[in-house]
Structures are given as structure tokens and as C-alpha cells.
Amino acid sequence: MAINCGKKPTNMAPNxxxxxxxxxxxxxxxSNVKDKKILNISSKACxxxxxxxxxxxxxxxxxxxxxxxxxxxxxxYGPHILNVILGLTDTRLAEDFEGDKMxxxxxxKWISDMLxxxxxxxxxxxxxxxxxxxxxxx
Length: 138
Fold this sequence. Notes:
- The protein is of the alpha/beta class.
- The chain has two helices and three strands, in the order βαβαβ.
- It has a three-stranded parallel sheet with strand order 1-2-3, sandwiched between helices.
- Strand 1, helix 1 and strand 2 form a beta-alpha-beta unit.
- It starts with 36 loop residues before the first strand and ends in an 11-residue tail after the last strand.
């Protein structure tokens, strides 16, 4: 599932997942905002309008609003916004669902490959586990 399309960040040790590195605080000035990279982790819950409970409905609504803000900027240059719409990932939020889930470490590696790729510009990607099963556990 890895994308091999450019240099890895130079400050990373081999086999390190970038998401786990501490991010130093920075000040974004107007002169460098176009060069910034922003990662938005969305969810396939954005496609659910009537969900199993009010919390998941609110979660889906919030993700739809985030996606809309990003879509409104899709034709604008900078900052680079990567919107990743994830399906079932093995996290606390997905623990009540049956079936296979994506491994968070593999997902974070794949995302970092897209974000740091120097030969392609990824803007919005939807990814899910190969055997979809969105049934709740009984």
C-alpha cells in the first residue's frame, strides 16, 4: 500500500512513522503559508446522514463540513491540504463494528508517503479496508 514517489524527510530515522514524531511549534507568517502542508483526517461517516446514534450523526455532519471547506479550496494554490477520508480503522471509534479494520500504523505510513511525495500532489483520497463490513456487533 506504500507510495514510493520521492525523498523521505531527512530528519527521520529508518522505519519511523512520521505521525509519531513531536511537531515543534512554528509561527506561520504570510510569506511561508503557501508552502505549508495541512493534513485533514476525515471519515466515511461523512456519507452517513442517518446514523445509529446521535453522536455518530453529529460526527458525520462535522466531517461533511470539514470536507466542504477543503473542497472549496481545491483549485487554489497553497497551502497544500491533503484530505484523507478513512473507512474503518482499528481505533476506539470503530470498536463496535464487526469485520476487518485498517491498521493505524499502516495508514499513517501511507498518509506520510502521500504528504511528503515530491512528484505528485495528492489532494483528496478515500481509502477503506478491502472487505467492507459496517455491521455493528451484537
